[in-house]
Amino acid sequence: MQEKEINELNYWKREAEKDPSILNNPESDRVYKTYLQIDNNTFKDKIVVDVGCGPLGILRLYNAKLKFGVDHLINEYSRIGYKLLNHDIVYLCCKSEEICLIDGYADFVISRNALDHVDDFYKTMDEIHRILKRDGELIFAVDLRTRVSSAAHPRILNKKIIEETCKDRYYDIKIQVYPKGYNDNDTYEVGYFKGRKRWQQK
Hints:
Elements: H1 3-16, H2 26-35, E1 47-51, E2 66-70, H3 74-79, E3 90-92, E4 106-112, H4 121-131, E5 132-144, H5 159-168, E6 171-178, E7 189-197
Parallel strand pairs: 1-2, 1-4, 2-3, 4-5
Antiparallel strand pairs: 5-7, 6-7
């Protein structure tokens, strides 16, 4: 297991010792409902995929036709005590660079605080583009960093890199960047991105 994965699991072990109502706290509401503009009916009658979902199952708070959570540590989360079977989510134990869904399957892909953790950001973005339907929507938030700060964040991401990556994959995108994020203790910017996949293919 890589150092990055060990750090990730240690983080979730610490979180498991805290109040599990983290899903319903004001910060979570602010990120998903205010910054990402996702409400209870955004995914109604749609297929939605959460890339880098972690063990908390945020999609269980939203209405959708089908919900998928993608995370290659899913089995490890179960092992350390998270009760994933309590969620109405189909969990896929796979890496973001090799998502085990067919082409053009999802109406929405969401991701929060995950795309800056992946091994290969560009390949992950290719996979997201592959599984989205024509006119499918990508909604994500990432920390925008100027340097690699830890093993958990192996890639530098900034607004320019993300804009160019989305343009190369035929997305029309909207970006909001908040200096120091949404938390006064943050020392980095947080970017909120919404993109619609155009008809062209790579």
